[in-house]
Design a protein that fits this description.
Oligomer: single chain
Strand content: under 5%
Structural class: mainly alpha
Shape: globular
Helix content: over 70%
Number of domains: 1
Low-confidence stretches: none
Length: about 220
């Protein structure tokens, strides 16, 4: 596999107004990510939930990373630095997915079933790493790999629904699935983002909604319980 040169990569044809909207929506996401990180870390320490603390750091840092990278990418003018940030932006999605698993796996799943914890952790890390490599080489060429990875790795959480139910009950699962549905619905607007004006900004709002819904599940059940 040969990496596509930055000079040969094409940027989406967004207007400046669209890019400002794209940037602002994820600046809000970055602020939310910082708040989520602080809350999760603080309450993990207060409750001496050290596994929760480890998961919180991974989860919060990767969330802030995704929203920061996205905001910078959309805020830049369409030159070489923007193409570099485009690669990082697409790769950061897998970091965010991986980060969202961390507190769930390190608390409830680890306590319920160590075998499931190890298997799912290895699969999520390996799957994310492979998809990041293909995305970095050429997102357009290997878009099918990336899109399949988003769905497969994200919804692999279905594997751990039963141990999660045993650990936290049905309401926690409802919050998690609601977040997953928001992320998935956002993909529809992402796919149409270059064809319909401001659809990419709507995609960003669905990503933010998914983050908020899953934060409720993680903070209330993985950290506070």
């Amino acid at each position: 596999m040969k990496r596509t040169k930055l000079a040969d990569r094409r940027l989406p044809d967004y207007t400046r107004g669209e890019e400002i909207a794209n940037m602002v929506t994820h600046i809000v996401g970055g602020a939310f990510g910082i708040a989520a990180l602080v809350l999760c870390v603080t309450f993990s320490v207060l409750k001496r939930n050290w596994w929760g603390l480890a998961g919180s750091l991974i989860y919060g840092i990767f969330m802030v990373y995704l929203y920061t990278i996205s905001s910078v990418y959309h805020g830049l003018i369409p030159e070489k630095p923007k193409k570099v940030m485009q690669v990082l932006d697409h790769c950061s999605i897998f970091a965010m997915i991986l980060g969202s698993y961390a507190p769930i796996l390190l608390t409830g799943i680890r306590q319920q079933n160590m075998t499931v914890f190890i298997v799912v952790t290895v699969l999520v890390i390996a799957g994310s790493a492979v998809c990041i490599v293909f995305t970095a080489i050429d997102f357009k060429k290997y878009q099918a790999v990336s899109m399949t990875g988003y769905f497969a790795i994200g919804w692999a959480a279905l594997i751990i629904l039963y141990p999660l139910y045993k650990a936290y009950g049905a309401v926690m699962i409802i919050w998690l699935i609601a977040g997953g549905v928001a992320y998935t619905l956002g993909i529809i607007f992402y796919a149409l983002g270059t064809k319909k004006r401001y659809f990419h900004s709507i995609f960003h709002l669905f990503i933010l909604l998914g983050s908020i819904l899953q934060f409720v599940a993680i903070f209330k059940y993985c950290i506070l319980l």
